[in-house]
Every structure is written in structure tokens, then in C-alpha cells.
Write a structure and sequence with these properties.
By secondary structure, this protein is of the alpha+beta class. Among the domains are: 154 residues, Alpha-Beta Complex (Cathepsin B, Chain A); 62 residues, no CATH class. It is 41% helix and 20% strand. The chain is built from 13 helices and 16 strands. The strands form four sheets. Strands 3, 9, 11, 12, 13, 14, 15 and 16 form an eight-stranded mixed sheet that branches. A hairpin with a 2-residue loop joins strand 12 and strand 13. Helix 2 crosses helix 7. The two termini are 39 Å apart. The relative contact order is 0.10.
Amino acid sequence: TGGLFVSGQRHMLNKSLQGLVGLRNLGNTCFMNSILQCLSNTLELRDYCLRNCHITDLNNNCRSNTALIEEFAKLTQSLWTSANNEPISPSEFRNQVQRCAPKFVGCNQQDAQEFLRFLLDGLHNEVNRVTVRPKVSVLDFDHLADDEKGRRMWNMYLAREDSKVVDLFVGQLKSSLTCTACGFRSTVFDPFWDLSIPIAQKISGEVTLKDCLRLFTKEDVLDGEERPTCTKCKARRKCTKRFSIQKFPQILVLHLKRFSDSNVRASKLSTYVNFPLKDLDLREFASEPSERPVYNLYAVSNHSGNALGGHYTAYCKNPALGEWYSYNDSRVSPMSSSQVRSSNAYVLFYELATPSHMGGNVKSAKLAIRCLQYASMFFLFCFPYFTQKGHFEASLLSLECIFFSFKYRLLVLSIYCYYRDLRSTPHTPNARYNLFYLI
């Protein structure tokens, strides 16, 4: 019965539900609606809510009593199971948000990226699989290689923060600090939910997303009042600092810093940033060159207007239909992929991609295994026939063919398992080892 239910539910998700439902504006809540539509079109998070998987992860020790995730799941389910396309009021969800965060009380316009950070953190806390966090212990990992240090710091983080939300959205950033006096280099590893990247400025030519990422990861000089204390020199020294990405998340959220941090006069950069819709290769920003982080865009939160006021919308690629749609509060309309890029793009949502050739490799491996299986059966049939007829050379040849057929079946099977695992878990190193274990 359970299998039939899951099968029927999957059929319903794939065929019937479209998620093309708008959200009513409750008074300057377009910032909230924009982020909710982006998260609603995040495939794994959507399915997590639709299949009520969050119920098993509910953390009863959470102070907020799990109401935020429950309201978020209800709203997501309404967006994807609504009998009609009438706009939905997110009033109950907003009420719960305001109970958790007084900052969002009232009808003032808020920042969409700040709301996203609050929401993901709140959802994570309520479904954190760690019910009792271990005490924070200060451990010295400076003697370890950077890769091992990063791995241990990540495991320490997961020992306290472990949820479906973390599985999807959290990565690890590496910060390297080098003393210009003694050459000593120290590294710090921090988890991140999103990356706030500065917008590059060019005299000529268009600004690309990679230009902004290069500006974010470029080596900065810390001098004057910014001089840090060198661990080896025991004194404040001129240092260089650089960021790189140690662990890439499954969902990479990139926040374009369009608004100035100045308290004197608020301003907004309306620079057009050209970002790819697919095959965003971030290998040059990886701490470890063995990583192959390639991402596809699936949602954008847009802001039109200036620093004093404006309006938020969302462009999302529907996971069920594979088409792009514009979400403008209550209005949902189809759009061309060529319209996704604009100078209003504010928060970009990318999903870790599985290389397109892997699907073909898996199919080819399956076909090769089947052909080798038939070849083995043929030579197994030929061996007793040739032996009975006294054709000993042919019999030996049949045995050799059986042996090599079996050997190459194992090889092809190992390749098949490699690509299968890499498709299912492309962001983990485990898949690549199966190839060598099975040969």
C-alpha cells in the first residue's frame, strides 16, 4: 500500500501539479512573496514539504515550537496542490514570521536577501536533526593540512547543525591570511548560506557574474588600521587575505550587492550583470582543483526601483514543466528564458548540475553490459559443442572469450556504478571511489 501511495503521489507531483499560483500582497510584502516563490521552485525543498518529510525532522526542543516550518510547508503545499490558480494569501505564514522576528512587523518594505537568511535559519532550527548540541570545544587544527582541517571543521559544524535545509543550502568558505613579513599563512573555514558578492565596475564591456566572483575572491591587502596580528610574529603585520570555496552547496545562492552600506546616503547600483542560465563553471574559485562545481540557474529574485523604495518580483524555472515564469505577487505569467537576465537581478539561485553526458554514459554502460551478457551465453553454449566435436582449439578460444567477456562486464559494471552514484550524489567524493573498488 505504501508503495502504491508513493507511486501515486509521485505521479501527482509530475503530472497534475504546476505551482503556477500567485501570492497576495499584504502590504509591502513583495519581498516575502519573491523569496517564497524562489524557494517553492527549489525542487528538493518543495518535495520535502509536499511529502511531509519535515514532520519526521521536527525538533521538539526548538523554542519557536516548529510553527514556522509548519506554516511554510502548508503554504508550499497550497501553491502546488491548489485546485485552481487563484492567488493565495500568505497571512498565516506572515503572522508566524512576525512572531519570530519583530523586524518584519508592520508594512515597511524589507530586504529580500535579509528575509531569505532569516527564513532559512528559522526553518533549519526547527528541523535540526541535532536535538542536543554538543558543547563548543576549542581544538587546534593548525598543524593539519588545509583539506583535512576543512573537513574536520565541517564535521564539527554538522555535529551541531544538521538538517535538510543545511543539506541543500550550506557550503564552506575558506579564508587564507598570509603575513607579508614572515610568510606565515593561516586558514579559517566558515559555513555560508549565501555569498554576498560585490558588483564589478568596468570602463568598457559588460560586467559578468564571474567578474563579480573574481572581485569577491581576489587577494586584498590589509594594512594600516586593518593590520591583523600575525600568529607567528606575535605582532600586527601587513597581510594579504583571500577567499575560496572549500565546499560547494547543492543550492548556491548569490546575492548581488546592489545597495550601498553607507549611512550617509543610500544608493543602488543598477549595473547589468550578465549571468549564465546554465553551465556556470566555478572551478577557478574552488580551494581544491579536483572539484567540478557546475551550476544551473533556476530562480531569480528581482528588485526594481531605488534604494528608498521599489518592488520585488521573481523569475523561476518551474521544476515540473521546465519553463520559466514571472511571479509578480498575485500575477503569474510565462516568460522566455531570454528575459531572465536584467539589471534588476538581486538574488540568484543556482542548483548543482549533473553533467549532461552522464545520462548517456549510464545508458551506454547498461547496453554494453547486456551485450556482454549475451556474448557470454553464446560462448558458454559453444564450449561444450566444440569439445564434443573434438575442436579443442575452438574450445579453448571459447573459454578465453568467456573469461574476457566476464572481465569486461565487471569493468563496464564498475563504470556504470560510478556514473550512477555521481548522478545521485555529484557533490560528494564517495561516488568516484566506486569505480576503483569494483574493477
